[in-house]
Specification:
mainly alpha, Rhopdopsin 7-helix transmembrane proteins, globular
Length: 343
């Protein structure tokens, strides 16, 4: 029995040293296997190396193999499963159907699970083909846009102080929805248009809208942190989510530690993997803060939010629809581009 189990595990977890041979060497004149991490290279970027095409089950089964996307996949997948469990526990004591004030909480949980799941899919399946490389990352950007609006809604509804609410209530949610869509559109365009070795234009398209969206979305939290007059359990989680986000943003924009240890961080320790971990911690801290605010600040937010359920729900649907349509349009452009390339 033990021998059979050992044999199965040895087949499931492919040894690192065998992986480059399984996929085959890069063609002459392209990158070498020493320059690019094996298994799931980021292949289809402006004529880069294309590994052999394999069936979908190969990529799904790679969920249980060691490769350079494993941490990126599992960090967000595990967090999505944890939030599903958190939602199940909340469902037992929160009446999401009858309590209108609980619906923003449901939306931010759904948005968080969506972006984590889409990100996991993108990192797991993006090597299927050149088209799917673009397509799955466009889907990832849709999830990010949905999460940005969900975060803005959660902070605006539960975390905001009356003074800040009076200043921003006329434009906060419409602007948050617009910036979330712009973040998705900018990321899709940067992915489609710009070469990764010339990062400045692409980073401006991707990071400027996201930075503006975050500045708006987090403003109720920052105002509350700066003006809090008494201890509040939720503020600790709010401070943690800000700290984790800033650390994640640093590792997203800077190639550390692989810049210090070139060739040593292909499987573990990439800056993008660290970014994923900090983003997960940010999301988990944020959800805990919003849940505490929902439970302890009902007197405040029920007096401020006089019944905007239809407004924020409509904006949520608009954000989702516009982001999906934008991603579909960019995928269509990719398909046309690849068709022309093949001809």
């Amino acid at each position: 029995m033990a021998a059979a189990l050992t044999e199965k595990l040895s087949q499931l977890f492919t040894k690192v040293g065998q992986l480059p041979q399984l996929l085959g060497p890069p063609p002459a004149g392209t990158v070498s296997s020493a320059e690019v991490p094996p298994v799931f290279w980021r292949p289809y970027i402006h004529g880069g190396y294309r590994p052999p095409r394999r069936p979908w089950r190969y990529y799904f089964s790679s969920l249980f193999r060691q490769h350079n996307e494993a941490v990126n996949v599992w960090s967000h997948l595990a967090a999505a499963l944890a939030l599903l469990l958190r939602l199940q526990l909340l469902w037992q004591r929160v009446d999401f159907g009858q309590d209108a004030h609980a619906r923003p909480l449901l939306l931010i949980l759904a948005a968080s699970i969506t972006y984590l799941s889409f990100s996991s899919l993108a990192h797991l399946l993006q090597a299927k083909s050149e088209f799917w490389h673009y397509g799955f990352f466009f889907l990832d950007y849709v999830g990010v846009a949905v999460y940005q609006y969900g975060s803005a809604l959660g902070h605006f509804y539960y975390a905001i102080e009356p003074g800040w609410h009076r200043r921003v209530r006329g434009f906060f949610l419409p602007l948050a929805a617009a910036l979330a869509w712009l973040s998705c559109a900018g990321s899709c365009y940067a992915k489609f248009r710009f070469h990764p070795r010339c990062p400045l234009p692409g980073r401006l398209c991707q990071e400027l809208p996201s930075g503006l969206a975050y500045a708006l979305d987090i403003s109720p939290v920052l105002h509350r942190i700066c003006t809090a007059a008494r201890p509040d359990p939720a503020l600790l989680y709010h401070r943690c989510q800000v700290l984790f986000f800033l650390l994640g943003a640093f590792f997203f924009s800077q190639p550390y530690p692989e810049k210090w240890f070139p060739g040593k961080c292909h499987f573990l320790g990439q800056s993008h993997q660290i970014f994923h971990v900090f983003l997960v911690l940010c999301t988990l801290a944020q959800i805990e803060a919003v849940v505490l605010d929902y439970e302890s600040r009902r007197e405040i937010y029920s007096s401020l939010q006089g019944g905007p359920a239809h407004d924020f729900s409509a904006l949520f649907l608009v954000t989702v629809s516009c982001s999906v349509l934008t991603a579909a349009y960019m995928a269509h452009r990719v398909k046309n581009k690849l068709g022309l390339k093949e001809e």
